[in-house]
Amino acid sequence: MTDLVLETRGITKSFGALKASDSIDFDLRPGEIHAIIGPNGAGKSTLIKQISGELRPDAGQVFLAGTDVTQQTTRARARAGLGRTFQISELAMEDTVLQNAVLGALGASGSVWRFLKPVLSDAELVTRAEEALDRVGLLDARNQRTAELSHGQRRQLEVAVALTLRPKVFVMDEPMAGLGAEGSLTMTRFLDGLRSEAPILLVEHDMDAVFALADRISVLVYGRLIATGTVDEIRSNAEVREAYLGE
Ligand code: ADP
Ligand code: MG
Q1: Same-domain status, 47 and 161
Q2: Angle 151-163/97-106 helices, nearest 10 degrees?
Q3: By residue range, what is the domain housing residue 51?
Q4: Where is the ABC transporter domain (predicted)?
Q5: Whose CA is nearest to atom 19 of ligand 1?
Q6: Could you say which of 137, 166, 195 is where a domain stops?
Q7: CB 79 within 8 A of CB 146
Q8: pLDDT (tens digit per residue) in 207-246
Q9: What's the pTM?
Q10: 117, 71: one domain
């Protein structure tokens, strides 16, 4: 038995001659935020995609709450409790904020949304969607067109879309990207409150946010995890400073 909510064992993925994931062992414990940092092209998004099911590893396994989900679809993993923030590009810009959140409750992707519109009358879906919007501070904007939202609000909406599935674990790829200082702080506070209900794998470039939030940090360089430790351990790790922090 394991109490790890998420685990990868020996995840390996190549693109041609490039090894984007080189035998990665990663795990996420209940209640924690485990950040992955590393330079551009290190393989952070590639790892996340193998965890969410968008990419199949060449070798290795992904476990969700102890169950091997390596062969499962993205959809099945979402139903099993894996919450993945959607990219802004997957939001339906002409639809309202509420419609996009309902889409999350359906566990559907943007492209499928048009076929599912009649389901909007389902009171439970709307209730869940409104709950999620309320939590990210977007309830008042629920009838606005998504295109009218600020960049920061769209980021919050992405999180709301993921929240509607009531995930057991969150996987987030750079949720602070493109947010100003104020937006980053709002998101940081929000993620801090979220960890007790769903632990978070956080890929993030904003080091202030990472140092404020992370219980553990793993450092990925050229597809290899070179270190895992607490904030203090990582900040004082000579290899990390050289390879990533540029010191
Ligand atoms: P990060 O998210 O850390 O910036 P990525 O996981 O996006 O890095 O990319 C890791 C490496 O794999 C990069 O060199 C990138 O160019 C390459 N890569 C990512 N996706 C693909 C793909 N679909 N086809 C070919 N190369 C890819
Ligand atoms: Mg990336």
Answers
A1: no
A2: 30
A3: 1-81+167-247
A4: 6-247
A5: 46
A6: 166
A7: no
A8: 999 999 999 999 999 999 999 999 999 999 888 887 776 6
A9: 0.89
A10: no
